[in-house]
Automatic annotation (TrEMBL):
<feature type="domain" description="OmpA-like">
    <location>
        <begin position="458"/>
        <end position="574"/>
    </location>
</feature>
<dbReference type="InterPro" id="IPR006665">
    <property type="entry name" value="OmpA-like"/>
</dbReference>
<dbReference type="InterPro" id="IPR050330">
    <property type="entry name" value="Bact_OuterMem_StrucFunc"/>
</dbReference>
<keyword id="KW-0472">Membrane</keyword>
<dbReference type="Pfam" id="PF00691">
    <property type="entry name" value="OmpA"/>
</dbReference>
<dbReference type="InterPro" id="IPR036737">
    <property type="entry name" value="OmpA-like_sf"/>
</dbReference>
<keyword id="KW-0732">Signal</keyword>
<feature type="signal peptide">
    <location>
        <begin position="1"/>
        <end position="28"/>
    </location>
</feature>
<protein>
    <submittedName>
        <fullName>OmpA family protein</fullName>
    </submittedName>
</protein>
Amino acid sequence: MYGKKRQITKKASGLALLAFSFFSGVVAQQITPLKVLNSPYDEQHPVFSPNGELFFTVGFHPQNTGGATDFGDVWTSSKDAQGNWLAPKRVEGLSTAGNDVVVGFTDALTILVYHSGGPNMRQGIHQYARFGSTWNYVRPLEISNFKNNSSYFSGRLSHDGEVIVMSLSSFGTYGNEDIYVTIKKEDGTWTAPLNLGSSVNSFAQEQTPYLSKDNMTLYFASNKLGNRQGKDIFYSQRSGSGWEDWAEPIRVEAVNSQGSEMSYVTYGPNPAMALFSTTQNSEGFGDFMLSDFQKVEPLNAPDTQAEVAEIPAQEELPPAVQEAAVVTAAVAEPVAQQPVAEVKPTVEEEVKPAVVQEAKQEVAPPSLEVNEPVYTKKEWLSVKVVDAFTNEEIGYQIEVSNERGVKKAISTQQEWLELAEDPQWTNILIQSKGFIPQLLSKENWESLQGKELALKPAKAGSSIVLENIQFNRGTSDFADAKSIQVLDNLVGFMKENPAIKIRLEGHTDNAGDPSLNKDLSMKRASKIRGYLTINGIEFERVRISGWGGTRPVADNNTEEGRERNRRVEMVIEN
């Protein structure tokens, strides 16, 4: 489970003790070890099957697939006729030489397991089916833009099977591991991981997330207090229907100690009890303990049902029939004639946006407040911003951002002087109301010193290449955090100019099958529209088309030219 190798040491022998004195804040509550499940190694991340079996990860056990340095194999235990837990056994069919973590069960015969990846297994969450006493591999879960930059992972399927909360280091993370959410779509795929935001996540590690049955309370572990006492268990409540709306986390005082506490969940045989792990009685490795479960009432209790009911509405985006029709149109159209035709939504479909739901990446931590735009001429900068059509100087707002998407609006010369030399600020956004904004690298900005930067008015016929939106090769998955930043800027532009309608035109190079290229170009344009729509832009304001490789802007015989041809253009419509 842990992301670094550590010396294998035996756990202390005090497991038989009831831990009243070991846990701070305990008031008349018993902390009891599950002795038969605990070993000299690292027990973490318990998950109960619908049949009442317990599956969990054991790290650094010499019987693991990768031996004593293996971060975690899947182990299991069940109860005998008298209700006592049996000695755990390793589940060979669910274990690899990397880190293996059970995420949950979709039913009694289907399990989801995270694998950190290796020669024969890609990184991600995978589905297995039970046949008798063995587990057979089925397929990987298709989670858009899934990438874990850490060797640590924890995650759990929600009680309704529609949501996975997970801890990993990915796009838009605030520090180490953050907690993200992915939501199941109608076609069985999952949305791109959405960072839960700065109320839950911090510069430190947030791990082992667990959702209450109504999806309104999140329990998790974090070492954000920085008290050198390891991780503590917290809970946070959703303050609205959105997955970024969370109240300030509160410590679960009864179970936290000077060790590290993690993996806090309801205890399968008795939901009034909590099962969690602690290193209090060991030398750095987790032991399973039982205590009373701290249940909390949801915030805004009268509206809870209405808020929860909104979650499936996100899953209904888009109707699979419409998405299939778009792809069919992309393939069927002649290569050299017209772009892929967009399928007009029916009246029923226009009630809700027909888009693939994409998760918005959290980009601004609480320490940096993004100011409201103030569009003024800035004599203290040597770059003059002008209207591209009239060449008249215009007022503008300048904003700097770093590679993680953290951004800061600049309104005074003093702010500029303080931030301009800081190497973390790598991008500069120039925007003015009624004009198409431009995102520049620091190098491009410096090349403009003493010159003019022309912004195109946001009126019919104006177009711009969305140059900083990158896709993984051959797919419609966004490639990096900067792409998300550009999309967020585009969302802001559309909200600030509510009368504007745009067309997104997808293009590829000419390599490969022309019809597949048209399909890919349409999917990429659709992916961007999906991101805009899920972040509040009306569906009818964004039209899409896919041209494949039929409209090159550069020589396809060079790699540089092919890269320029692989693009998405935004055109302002009437």
